[in-house]
Design a protein that fits this description.
The complex is a heterodimer of chains A (about 325) and B (about 260). Chain A has nine helices and 18 strands. Chain A has about 325 residues and is an alpha+beta fold. Chain A folds into two domains: about 230 residues, P-loop containing nucleotide triphosphate hydrolases (Rossmann fold), CATH 3.40.50; about 80 residues, RNA polymerase II/Efflux pump adaptor protein, barrel-sandwich hybrid domain (OB fold (Dihydrolipoamide Acetyltransferase, E2P), Beta Barrel). The model of chain A has no long low-confidence stretch (mean pLDDT about 90). Chain B has twelve helices and two strands; from the N terminus they run H-E-E-H-H-H-H-H-H-H-H-H-H-H. Chain B is mainly α. The model of chain B has no long low-confidence stretch (mean pLDDT about 80). In chain B, helix 3 packs antiparallel against helix 8 and helix 11 packs across helix 12. The chains are: A alpha+beta (about 325), B mainly alpha (about 260). Chains A and B meet through strand 6 and helix 2 of A and helix 7 and helix 8 of B.
């Protein structure tokens, strides 16, 4: 595994005090790394720093072992797919893809071949002569990805590329991106605030909070072994119950199973069902404990057996403890 | 009633124009008569025979063209900067261009005249072009500023990203998007400079005579027909340019260009 991108002690401070700090990150060749966090956590700033759109305050950025910290975007081997696609309205789809190739002095015949290949791969070869405004959101998205990929960047940067698409197309585009990534073995850095999207796409996820990276790991590492309450609550559903004065115990809804008063063991809790819903292939129960309300996932028919107001016992099989007050 | 209002309005609007038109093609016109006694091109021949008037015609276009060109060179980068960088005092700066137009012009020109004397710009083409640029700055700054603001910054970033330098980005992405507005601004500038007389007279007289400044002399010394012919000659390029813009942009977007965001 070769290192494609290395970020050392990076910080970028804006005048108003926002920004990112103490960023250290290694991205390997062929990886999809997701920068995940709520809006304002600095994930876009980090991505824009990698792309060369932000002048960083301190630290270094190395792409393929070359220091690019001071280089403008046009000198870097990264290409960004912007949130709003940013296709050039005055150019056709073909010209949008051609512009960068022309700048790279690729011959006319090769340009044509590469562009048509790319458009075919993305299934939009019929739209080559059209203008971006004439295309649907999903098609524009494909053109934006095509415009980036046709230049064969070392790293493809994606800034919440699916946020403007409706749910169904979004899922479809994710699948497509994964397919393309597998085929071209390209390195991708992906920014999103959608944890589901991050879980689905990523080789590794870097969870960000207030301008810092809190935890980096594979989706299952992040999900099964979150470093603190923040990560635990940001990724997936997590229930918190008070363990003692400084600590909080946490468990995933699927890590508890319903039991009875007779079988009650060490990690058994007792509560009242507050709400009971059938979610399709499973039931979701909201259970009121002494202080908190927690969520349980149970088998499909459980909602019938435990209607609202009934007593319930459940045993937690996997529990994690976190120090209180980590989340400010 | 409505018809009457419209008629009065039309009379005020087109009456003087018609009168000018009529006078320009009159051969003989005497005071008590409402209509000229005979029509023809006598006075046109007369005008084109006067070499200094012809020179004024040429000067007018030279001054207008140079003013437009240099106004673009100076103002477009400024407009871009105002559109892109939100520096302190930005709004005040924009507003200051209005101020120079709000002052009584003649006072401003007199003050400038003193400086121009020291710099030996009085009576020179450079001086006249400079004074015209001052007048037209408001169009060349305000309209393109609005247009540049409408070009998304990320469109430029996308161009930088695929390998275009800042200058290439400006000319391939930003400039073409703002071009319609820039053409409208250039049109205003050109027509404004063609029409300008106060400043040109004060700075350029007597060496630089344009059609607009020559008018003063004509009104005093020559037959009213000459004035009318000159007026028509002045109107002609304006109508032509407006018509070209109209053709070029189409009715709707042409009107849209006249508003700043």
């Amino acid at each position: 595994m070769t290192v494609k991108l290395m970020i050392e002690d990076l910080s970028k401070k804006y005048e108003n005090g926002d920004g990112i700090q103490d960023i250290n990150l290694v991205v390997n060749s062929g990886e999809i790394l997701t920068l995940l966090g709520p809006s304002g956590c600095g994930k876009s700033t980090l991505l824009r720093s990698i792309g060369g759109f932000e002048r960083v305050t301190t630290g270094r950025i190395l792409i393929a072992e070359k220091d690019v910290t001071k280089q403008p975007p046009e000198k870097r081997s990264t290409i960004m797919v912007f949130q709003g696609y940013n296709l050039w309205e005055r150019m056709t789809v073909f010209e949008n893809l051609e512009f960068g190739l022309k700048l790279r002095k690729v011959s006319k015949s090769e340009r044509k071949q590469r562009i048509m290949e790319m458009l075919t791969m993305l299934g939009i070869e019929a739209m080559a002569a059209e203008y971006p405004q004439q295309l649907s959101g999903g098609q524009q998205q494909r053109v934006a990805i095509g415009r980036a990929l046709v230049l064969r960047p070392e790293i493809l940067l994606l800034d919440e590329p699916y946020s403007a698409l409706d749910a169904k197309i979004r899922v479809q585009m994710r699948e497509e991106l994964k397919k393309i990534q597998r085929r071209l073995q390209i390195t991708i850095i992906f920014v999103t605030h959608d944890q589901e999207e991050a879980m689905m796409l990523s080789t590794r996820i870097a969870v960000m909070k207030k301008g810092e990276i809190v935890q980096v790991g594979t989706p299952s590492e992040i999900y099964n072994d979150p470093k603190d309450i923040y990560v635990a609550s940001f990724i997936g559903e997590m229930n918190f119950v008070t363990a003692d004065t400084d600590r909080v115990a946490a468990f995933r809804p699927e890590d508890a199973h319903i039991t009875s008063a007779q079988e009650a063991g060490e990690n058994t809790y007792h509560g009242t069902v507050q709400q009971s819903t059938q979610m399709g292939h499973y039931s979701q129960l909201m259970v009121k404990l002494e202080e908190q309300t927690i969520v349980l996932f149970a088998e499909k028919d459980a909602f019938e057996n435990y209607p609202e107001g009934t007593d319930i016992f459940f045993e937690v099989k996997k529990m994690q403890n976190f120090i209180k007050g980590v989340e400010k | 009633m409505n018809f009457l209002v419209l008629f009065v309005f039309a009379f005020f609007m087109y009456g003087p124009l018609l009168n000018t038109f009529m006078l320009a093609f009159a051969n003989k016109y005497q005071a008590p008569h409402v209509l000229p006694l005979s029509f023809g091109f006598t006075w046109w021949k007369n005008v084109f025979a006067q070499s200094d008037l012809l020179q004024a015609f040429v000067n007018s276009f030279l001054v207008a063209a140079l003013s437009t060109f240099f106004s673009m060179v100076i103002c477009l980068p400024a407009a871009y900067a105002i559109a892109r960088y939100h520096f302190k005092g930005r709004n005040l700066f924009l507003f200051s261009f209005l101020l120079s137009n709000a002052f009584p012009k003649i006072g401003l020109y007199t003050a400038i005249g003193i400086i121009f004397y020291k710099m030996q710009l009085m009576g020179t083409l450079t001086g006249v072009v400079l004074i015209n640029i001052l007048n037209t700055m408001i169009f060349m700054i305000w309209i393109p500023t609005g247009a540049f603001q409408n070009v998304y910054r990320q469109q430029e970033e996308a161009a930088r990203d695929v390998g275009a330098g800042p200058i290439r980005t400006f000319f391939t992405i930003t400039f073409p998007s703002a071009l319609p507005a820039i053409i409208v601004a250039a049109m205003y500038t050109f027509l404004g400079a063609l029409d300008e007389s106060q400043g040109t007279l004060l700075i350029g007289f007597p060496q630089i005579k344009t059609m607009a400044t020559a008018m003063y002399g004509i009104i005093l010394d020559q037959a009213p027909m000459v004035g009318a012919i000159f007026a028509l000659l002045l109107v002609l390029p304006a109508v032509l340019i407006l018509w070209l813009c109209y053709k070029f942009f189409g009715k709707k977007s042409f009107l849209q260009q006249l508003f700043i965001k």
